[in-house]
Fold these 2 entries.
Entry 1:
Amino acid sequence: MAIDLHKYANPKRFLAITSAIYPWSVWLTVILLLGGLYLSLFVAPPDYQQGDTVRIMFVHVPAAWMALMIYTLMAVSSAVGLIWKHPVADLTAKAAAPIGACFTFLALVTGSLWGQPMWGTFWVWDARLTSMLILLFLYLGYMAIWESFDDPAKAAKAAAILALVGVINIPIIRFSVDWWNTLHQPASVATMDGPKIHTTILIPLLVMGLAYTAFFVMVLIIRVKAEILKRRLRVLQIAELRES
Amino acid sequence: MSRFFQLIGRDIRLAFRQGSAITLSLSFFVIVVVLFPLGVGPELAVLARIGPGVLWVAALLACLLTLDRMFQADFEDGSLDLLIIGPMPTEMLVLAKVIAHWLTSVLPLIVIAPVLGLSLNLPGDSIVALTGALLVGTPTLSLIGAVGAALTVGMRRGGVLLSLLILPLYIPVLIFGVAAVDASIAQLSAAPHLLLLGGVSLGALVVGPLAAAAGLRLSLS
């Protein structure tokens, strides 16, 4: 019992803190998302070349930001979990992975929907697209290794090792893909060096980015809570089995 | 240190006496490369264009094929437990295993690669670059692969998971490796690419054994 208390001391505090944050994150998500969508769909001017297609960017770019941010967060919490054996850190990394994979997927899909009218094709082997695709594979591998162990403590460690090796590799992959792209495709399709981003576009973009972050915090809290409760349930079930 | 070399020697002897391990990955490599001309068509210009990529991808896959055997056999007969309990640090054990894997499963591919390069109509200079790039770059494949092999050791269907975990991490090696050969085909210096490959290999030499040893301790605990 003493071990149990020690184990749950941190999750309990964590649950208390997150329960306080949760309503705020919900309201922030709703307000920022509505505001951001209004700003980006109605207020922001259409691009002089791309027309209304440019509005896809307001959904696409924050998703790509989130995809990278969530992997970094996963790596940091994996390191914390590995070094200080902090169970909540492991669960946070686990809970964040599917959300990150969804954001990566969203970035890829919206990117290719934007690419169809702009480049005339759904997919271009552009450096950014390719490295996002590789990031999606890294997410999938991370999620797969969590599923492959029966023992959650072992799975947490294995996944943490993988996430850390992955995060060391990401800059190398990014660099090599950039290199590969310039070697094989000298005429880049997506040159963004037109006019610099104007504030009428930048503000909706930032609001959408904040909305995505608030959304991520909200979903992350739900998922981590569910993971903690799942573990408690497991402990209770085992205890019940022992008694009977 | 003598234990380290004894372990390498033991693994090499095992691989040679079983025999099938070396010939299997070698014939896999050759067959995969042979499939490409059959699929793409026999035009020599096309083959020379895709040749470096085909050879590198085939080498990646052949290496992946033998990776799950790196710790699996020792895990099954229990000798891996003894090796970890023994006086040698687990990191060194991993390094010995990696060297043995590279010598038995990857080096034969590098030996045969020039012949396959000729069959894909690669010019002579680029075959030298190809061999050099393979020599410098493939240690990374074994080193990073060891991490995946250590994490999946003891799993029933570890091989499939291994490829999902490891292949994305192989991408830099593939890109720089092909770039080196392409550069020499274009009469440019392959040296920058080879240096980058060497840098990646040295980085993997640091990270690989550490992470793989952590993975092994975890899988056996």
Entry 2:
Amino acid sequence: MADVSASPTFEAASTVNLRSLAAEVVERAIRAGATDAEVVVREGDEFSVSVRMGQVETLQESGSRGLGLRVLVGQRSASSSTSDLTADGIAQVVSSALALAQVTEEDVFAGLPDAADMGQLPGDLHLYFDDVYSLPAAERIERARRAEAAALAADPRITNSQGGGFDAATGRKVFANSRGFIGEYQTSYCGISAAPLAMDANGAMQRDFWSSSARRIGDLESPEEIGQEAARRALLRLGARRMPTQQVPIVFAPEVARSLLGHLFEAASGDSIWRSASFLVGELGKTIASPGITVVDDHTMILPNGVGGFGTSAFDGEGLPCRRTVVVQDGVLETYLLNTYSARKLKMRSTGNASRGLAGAPGIGAGNLYLLPGKQSPEQLIAAIPAGFYVTSLMGFGANLVTGDYSRGASGLWIENGELTFAVEEVTIAGNLRAMFKNITAIANDLVFRGSVTAPTLRVDGMTVAGA
Amino acid sequence: MSAAHAHPIPAPAYSHKRYFFEKFGITERLLERCLGEALAAGGDYADLYFESVTATALGVDEQIVKSASCGTSAGCGIRVLSGERTGYAYTDNLSPERLLHAAKTAALIASGPAKHPIQGFQDAPVADLYPVPLGGFDLDLAARLDLIQRADRAARAFSPQVIQVRSSYSEELRRILIAASDGAFASDTQPLCRLNVFVIAKDDQNTTRGSSGCGGRGGLEIFVGSKSPENLAREAARGAILQLGAVPAPAGEMEVVLGPGWPGILLHEAVGHGLEADFNRKKTSAFAGLIGQSVASSKVSVVDNGTMTGRRGSLNVDDEGSPTQETVLIENGILKGYLTDKLSSRLTGAANTGSGRRESYQCIPMPRMTNTYMLAGDDEPEDIIRSVKRGLYAVNFGGGQVDITNGKFVFSASEAYLIEDGHITAPVKDATLIGNGPEALKYVSMVGHDLKLDEGIGTCGKAGQSVPVGVGMPTIKLDRMTVGGTGR
């Protein structure tokens, strides 16, 4: 195995032991004058194919790697990253991080976590399955082709396509710091998707998309299921019209309800809180959502099929063991989501939510974030609404987490007398997140873990639809 | 195939080309071999895209220089076109073995005998739209820290209601070298910098945010005058404090006046993306087949111009090695053309507008915008406001998004006011505006003479790839547009 300091003719990248490299760079940084250091090394491979109108459109296959170093010199910190893992590249990354630490200033809250808090979950979390690459290339292409073909065959009004896709990726991450932590894990991913276009008699076009993701090839839904669902969604949009401006109950389908959880997470994250940049400042222990709302951020989840969730990992971005955190219990905000820095700012303890890219200081990230399902079916939830808007797609970036003001473009189906009727588009839905979470008046039972952030169908009252 | 190649390759004429030759040991012979390997399975076209990026970021937060980071990355993306197909592979290891391996991988998209021998590189002259630091990249960090510390002080001094200030500076230098089987042999060194200020303000009842920023392709000389750190800081603080007294935004269709500059994001979303040639070639855009037809009022002319000196969206050459240009998209309301890259140009016969861009060597290039703006009209901005009985005057925006297939687009106002009886009155809370691309600009009834380009902070995302862009617009009036507030 290669030793970084051993020789100027560094070994070819493919033979580098990332674990010893990470430990070596930590040591080098300390020798060069850092009082603490942490290193993340990542490598990954990706494959992707898209098939459009039955023909391969793009085929991509590649790999890359990178290393990021954060140093502390006393309570000054700085970081540096590189894609060059040769001896020269490593020397450069160490010297530049230390040089930058000379220009930063002391921040009494900066620093690595205490060694006593560090650790990782034991055992195999089932995050990596090498079978994502087991299919021969021709079979991968075939899956993408089948997904698109199923969409095109679903209905004569499906006339065009942005393609079907198959992707696979594997990654490996090693993290080490100068307080004795070293850990690593491998992850795998595969996905299949379709994006068909539907056209109505007037030539108006609508496009939609559906996909399935898994860590293990056998857990992917079939290409036909994905293509047919994508086609169903595109067809539902045909004939869409605008609606007059009014207040009606809004039903967020699961694929958009999850975005509300994303806003909640960001507003409850420690960095937003200590900056006073959140509508949840001062709300700890208070009721912020309607009774019955329970939100969990679980970084330890193993799905029923025995595979680790998309948000599962053994340790967080600072080397703390991952955990399950109840964020909101029956409407009450139980905790903020914290990394070491924000915890120190708020005189709290980290919740193990540190996230880390190659460059920069740790951020705050969610694991498997979900809202506990209710008892009724989505159909029952909709049946109780005389007039309302069932939203299946949102557009734009209109969520202000400082004030809670919320205004986004929306499309979906109009609800009349408890039933889904015609398609609606080119309207906005608006309210304030503070009120919206308290006005969740119904929760359906359709929680499915299609990704790391998941919610069931939700009904929110009191919002304004703006249209014609 | 390489034996068939008879033209001598000119010596690299520019220092940014030499950079790759010297730093990574790339040789003309190696470029040829890689292109040969890429076309060995019968592709129609191949290109190599070498990229080396150095980036630095500095941040002041709570009056402390809290963060400093730098990063370097380098790699090469190899693309092979075969009909409508694209094969792509990249490597961050620029050794000959890895490059040839990537070329072989990309080549698999095609099947057949090698048919297009390399024609010899054309070392075309390139434009000179931005300063290039030829020496190295040894930054004067103190001068950069000074910018963000000045911004921090100015924002805090603006008002006691300012309770949090964060200012940041980021800079990157991107070097690219492109060698293609059609003979394109281009290189460029692209500086890009940006200064941002983020403010939280608070009074007895409310907490609000405000932000501002500016930048471009250049150095520290950008940050003077109206773009001084002090000015930016005051803008951010003013915006946050204004929001403390904001009333709910109105809801529904009304007259909308957009201020000059950054509100040009309307054009980017409403028409720009819909005019990218890939969507139109595949007929997935709401604008497909509309060339020569009216898509806007006769007062509207829109161009995309990648050749403006120092602009964030400008490029001497695009990421396929083609020179950028000024492309007329809409002229007096009539749709004139699309933004094209090499692939769409090959497949449709349309001229290449030099719009092939990519986020990095890991990405396949696509037709993208550069600086997109509406030409000035004749109206007095004051007259435009005066003409509105009840409406919205929006002067600053956050992000926007478009569904290019049905044409629906949104963009979110972050500073807007009510217009009542021809007068600007109360500031309103954040609200999203929504419209239909091929229709929205038909309602443009007045166009001001005050064309302004944005401050140089725009980033455009498409298919997961982010690239820097610019927008611009004079003050305009739309007779109707839907405003997504909660008020009456």
